[in-house]
Amino acid sequence: MKPKKFPWFSYTVIIVGSIMMVFPFLEMLFSSFKGAADYNRLNYSLFPETFETSNYATAFEQLKLGLLFKNSLVKSVVTTVIVLLTSSFAGYALTKLRFRGQKTIFRFILSTMMFPAFLFLIPNFYIMVHFPFVGGNDWMGEGGDGGMAKYTLALILPFTVSAFGIFLMRQFIMTINDAYIEAARIDGASELRIFFQLILPMTVPALATLAIFEFIGSWNEFIWSLLMYTVNKDLATLPVGIQQLKSHLDSNMTQPLVNAALVISTVPILLVFIFLQKYYVRGMMNSGLKE
Q1: Pair 63, 242: CB distance under 8 Å
Q2: Among 131, 227, 231, 248, which residue is least crowded by beta carbons within 10 Å?
Q3: 39-48 b/e with 16+ CB inside 10 Å = b?
Q4: Contact, 205 vs 279, CB < 8 A?
């Protein structure tokens, strides 16, 4: 029996690729501790000569990171929870319930993924401004600020339904044996009880996978948040605040502060992925393209 050859080439490619992926994060982390002169010196060095921890305190003061962090956290968490509910509800209905036009509806949902997101900026903005009975508006959506007055509507409502999330949950729920559902129906369980007590516990890997995608996407979303910021300054999120710092001040002087803010904004994403990574792998393996 021939001894197995060690895949040197594959491991080398993986190691080199890992270093290339990690290096920008390391550069951002160490640069956040540099002073302006240390950051702009000609002889580049990854490690700072002296660690300037004051960059983080200055970033908190100049960016109002408390408000930005709160807005980003509320937006990301609430949006993720609602998307998980709407996607799992739709995935269950499009898979385990039988009604006319089921496949047509699913194809229509998939077709919406072909349109770029910026195509809906103006319609969504108009809807938010003229949202009835909110922000001083009457039933015709006139007379007030509409949804712009509350970040729970302005920052969250346009992202509460995800075509990709519906697709992902549908593909995973398809792998669940119909015998479980039929047995629950025979026992007299309602559809809501079947969904919450049977389907949801069995779809935890897919839910965790979707939660990672949605949280990261909502946390890093920039265009819509920037549009809301131009209307209401209190609706600023971390990506918008960091970009404003870069655009209004000398980037050579403020880049260490920007890096400090970026490090802070990266922490929640890393925590979410660390806690959900084992479910993420299972979800990606079990949510294959099945028809």
Answers
A1: yes
A2: 248
A3: beeeeeeeeb
A4: yes
Span 62-116, pLDDT tens digits: 777 778 888 899 999 999 999 999 999 999 999 988 888 888 999 999 898 888 8
Q: Which helix (H) or strand (E) holds 3?
A: none
User: Cα–Cα distance between 245 and 61 in angstroms, integer?
Assistant: 12
Phi and psi at 222, nearest 5°, equal: -125, -45
Q: What is the pTM of this model?
A: 0.82
Single-letter residue type at 65: L
Domain ranges across the chain: 28-34+53-286
The CA distance from 239 to 218, in Å, is 11
* Measured distance CA(65)–CA(239) in Å, rounded: 11
Distance from C-alpha of 102 to C-alpha of 56, rounded to nearest angstrom = 53
Domain over 28-34+53-286 is classified CATH 1.20.1730.10:
no
